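To: structure desk
From: M.T.
Subject: fold request, one chain
Message: Could you run this one when you get a chance? Sequence is below, nothing fancy, just the single chain.
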Amino acid sequence: MLNYDIVVIGGGPAGMAAALKAKECGVDSILILERAETLGGILEQCIHTGFGLHYFGEELSGPEYADRFIQLVDEQKIEYKTDTMALEITENNIVYAINKTDGLLEIQAKAIILAMGCRERPRGALNIAGSRASGVMSAGTAQKYVNIDGYMPGKKVVILGSGDIGLIMARRMTLEGAQVKCVCELMPYSSGLTRNIVQCLDDFNIPLHLSCTVVNIHGKERVEGVTIAKVDENRRPIPGTEEYIECDTLLLSVGLIPENELTRAVGINLDPVTSGAVVDEYRETSHKGVFACGNVLHVHDLVDYVTLESQTAGEGAARYVLGKTEAAEYITTKGVNGVRYIVPQKVNIRNSGDVKLYFRVGQVYKNAKTVVKYNGEEIISKKRPRLAPGEMENVIIKNDMLKNFAEGGVIEISVEV
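Reply: Done. Structure tokens follow.
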């Protein structure tokens, strides 16, 4: 059996940032497990720019952003095993993993950081009529084909879903010579960043159809076209609004699902909205010594936020290993009136620092304000010209304020128009 103070599962931006922060906090015995052949995670295929604006103050491509952390991991001599799949976490924080060099690994960890990222929602979850013709794939798969493998998935493209990956692939396919007919979005608003709507659709005159979905896929061997239709307030297709669009490719950008099979198997409590673990301000889960961060915890819109959150988890894991944790007196957080969820879901009022609460709204709001209440009493109010589901918001609870709270209290964040 191998022994490490901290085992990080996932070598993407979240896992690397968490490991580096733990090292900075004084923990030397760290191992990163990554199932891909290299560190970097999904950033390796994201060759577009826009990364690092918040964290580094400059615009980088995905591989450039990842490379900065890979270099730091090497400089700090943090151990890692690539091409290694984590199979199981036990109640005693033993990690079972496998690779073709070492075979089956049994690793005893004092603390574990979950940083497995997320995966795309597949066609099977959508119940779209049609045969299993080739040419239907997720936007991320198409991104890998184009950016990594050098293949073009098709020439006439329809994209279902206006998540950031779908928007970016609309531009990417156009730049590679394909004709992107339109982007269809089931909701009455886009789930992507505003900057991506402008730079990827508006700049290339690609139409975005809101409250619209694909109801049929035509073609037997290869996609020949799709039928789209408007949907009502219950997201059901409206008869008579159908329109046939000729295409040979349908890209799906219909949401991301945190990779929480390991989390669920060990019995960690999950949030039904985020599909990630329920955590405290240091991102510790309901299982002692197990922390979670990045897209496995909740789906982020910016990798910069993934990095910052993962540093918090790395610090939390280091504090746990070094025996620096405080006694726990928790209050809970709750999103109401337009706020879908808040992370962390609980906060230790004995914590010695400020706490940043991340949250997402459920629809687009203009000229609204976010209101924070503790046990029904307003403590923070912030005016916002625009709030959108595709852009994560945050609010900071100062430590001076936390000290006045009592165990069992509730912080609520809401939207007031």
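Reply (cont.): The chain has a mean pLDDT of 95. Let me know if you need anything else for the meeting.
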